[in-house]
Design a protein that fits this description.
The protein has about 300 residues and is of the alpha/beta class. It folds into two domains: about 100 residues, Orthogonal Bundle (Arc Repressor Mutant, subunit A); about 180 residues. The protein is built from nine helices and eight strands. Strands 3-4-5-6-7-8 form a six-stranded mixed sheet, with helices on both faces. Strand 5, helix 7 and strand 6 form a beta-alpha-beta unit. The chain is globular, with a radius of gyration of 20 Å.
């Protein structure tokens, strides 16, 4: 497939441009602030890179009604075809959005920041791989007709540490403090029914991860999930605590513990059982771009 001619004044920079196009297609729509650390050392440099991809006709920026608001980017249809062809993936893995006017942008941004953090964290701990991250838009296409419950994402982490392979699967729910607690109780009951009846989207033993914006909200959501019967297999985390390559930090509360004691410290992580505990030194901040990481580890998914 041929992309924009040299007259546009831009050239491809492979393999990074393919990695960017694939990631944007998987996420559907992104802002520079949410994903720049995957490939660049600063948001300014990423903004210039996205501008070049726009001139090449691979991505587009949606119009903004407020110039102070972040710009949202998505693949163009030619960009979608090019990324699928070059990545040799099923084109249905990728998405080119026509508009973001009706999208829940805060939830989309939250999911993208989590996804980015997971990738950056896996670079620091190369024996932990992201075996699967499917956002809601992909899950809906494979949801059985009799299942009404669709998580915001399904995540599977795989470890190659020690003998054999181990994995942990998570159903991810993102909370912006806009849902009533009765909705959370109903969701919890729904997850109990799914867990008792069958696998969830093919995942083996899985657990529920609820990400919330504040400590106060964490306690109320934990209490609601527990009241709905899902407390035994659910965990709560504050969204900001898992961002910036900290996705594997011990920053989660077992739902039952937090519901019982609002002052309980976080005592769990996404990778418990997959590796030895992440040390305090591992949790110290590093450069946003994680300089020196080989290109082959920079993909949004293996």
């Amino acid at each position: 497939m041929t992309i924009a001619s040299p007259a546009c004044g831009a050239r491809l920079n492979l393999p990074r441009d393919l990695e960017i196009a694939y990631a944007v297609g998987r996420m559907g729509a992104v802002t520079v602030a949410d994903v720049y650390a995957l490939w660049y050392g600063s948001a300014h440099t990423c903004r210039a890179g996205f501008g070049r991809l726009s001139r090449l006709g691979l991505i587009r920026a949606f119009p903004r009604t407020d110039p102070r608001a972040p710009a949202w980017h998505s693949l163009t249809h030619p960009g979608l075809e090019w990324a699928a062809e070059q990545a040799r993936c099923d084109i249905r893995e990728l998405r080119a959005m026509e508009s973001v006017r009706r999208a829940n942008l805060p939830a989309l941004s939250c999911r993208n920041r989590l996804w980015t953090s997971l990738v950056l964290a896996s670079r620091r701990h190369p024996h932990v791989h992201i075996a699967r991250f499917q956002p809601e838009w992909q899950l809906r296409s494979i949801t059985p007709p009799d299942q009404r419950l669709v998580p915001d994402a399904m995540l599977t982490l795989l470890s190659s540490l020690g003998d054999g392979e181990q994995q942990r699967a998570w159903a991810v729910e993102l909370d912006g403090a806009t849902e009533r607690l009765s909705v959370w109780r109903a969701k919890a009951a729904g997850y109990v029914a799914v867990r008792d009846a069958k696998r969830l989207y093919g995942a083996g033993p899985w657990q529920l991860l609820a990400l919330v914006p504040s400590r106060r909200r964490a306690h109320t959501v934990a209490a609601s999930i527990t009241a709905g019967g899902a407390g035994a297999f659910s965990f709560i985390g504050i969204t900001a605590d898992l961002e910036g390559a900290r996705a594997f930090d011990r920053a989660l509360w077992p739902c039952l513990a937090l519901a019982d004691d609002p002052s309980a410290p976080p005592a769990a992580s996404l990778v418990d059982g997959l590796e030895s505990p992440i040390s305090e030194a591992d949790q110290r901040s590093r450069s946003a771009a994680d300089r020196g990481v080989p290109h082959e580890t920079a993909r949004i998914l293996p």
